[in-house]
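Protein of interest.
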Amino acid sequence: MLSHAALNATLNASSAVLLSTGYWMIRRGRVLAHKSCMGLAFLSSTAFLVSYLLYHARVGSVAFRGQGWIRPVYFTLLASHTILAAAIVPLAVITLSRALREQFDRHKRIARWTLPLWLYVSVTGVVIYFLLYHLYTAPAGS
């Protein structure tokens, strides 16, 4: 069974794959496939956010144990990820609502910003998970 943190990483990775596939679909004129992928990406990201908040409400913060050069790299990545994650929520909602209201010119204008930022947040979420839970874990018995 997946740990809660692994579930969150899986939801983030799923969002990244769905966003990329949705972009690929709209570039090929496959509107219905694009709509399905983007809707699923939104659901996956929403599930991630709920799961993440529940996990950290119960567990609190998890300390990063990496030392040396990786430490400033990790915290720079974490800071950019966190700031953009907060920004992506309203951007994604606006982008989706414009598509659902068939305001496609306005949807396309904001989607040009939303897509790369959302992809960055999804991918960096997975990277942060691996750094935090797999590469720099606590020694056995601590």
The CA atoms of residues 2 and 91 lie 30 Å apart. Helices lie at 4-27, 31-59, 70-100, 104-135. The chain is about 80% helix and 0% strand. The mean pLDDT is 93.
